[in-house]
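Sequence, please.
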């Protein structure tokens, strides 16, 4: 899949650093044998949505997908938001987003930019997004 957009900087408070090992009594190390830190991201909800653009609407869906990245990443509790377009079937999309809490995700679902995208989606997509929610 082709990735759209780029990585985002996250404050250090979004990470837990674990000085731990793998196996029995063996510390994590880098390729030079130096001790390494394991970083675990605090995420409680990940949503994976699949979308199918109507024929001839692929460019409009791409523009809308890209336009949602910045305002979504600015929302409280958003850890990541990334749309992916299939490399050989440009009408197929997957959006992977991670949130600090279910409440943050539910607030996102009522955000003005997402509501506008849902409204436009009726003309751009073959049907509503298929969404799967995973919680940790």
């Amino acid at each position: 899949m082709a990735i759209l957009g780029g990585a985002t900087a996250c404050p250090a408070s979004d990470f837990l650093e674990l000085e731990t090992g793998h196996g029995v009594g063996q510390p994590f190390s880098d390729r030079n044998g130096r001790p390494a830190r394991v970083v675990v991201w605090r995420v409680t909800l990940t949503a994976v949505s699949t979308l199918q653009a109507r024929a001839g609407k692929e460019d409009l869906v791409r523009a809308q997908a890209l336009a949602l990245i910045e305002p979504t990443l600015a929302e409280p509790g958003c850890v990541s938001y990334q749309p992916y377009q299939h490399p050989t079937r440009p009408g197929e999309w997957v959006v992977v987003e991670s949130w600090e809490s279910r409440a943050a995700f539910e607030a996102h679902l009522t955000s003005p930019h997402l509501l506008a995208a849902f409204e436009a989606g009726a003309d751009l997509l073959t049907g509503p997004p298929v969404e799967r929610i995973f919680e940790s």
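Residues 53 and 91 are 5 Å apart (CA to CA).
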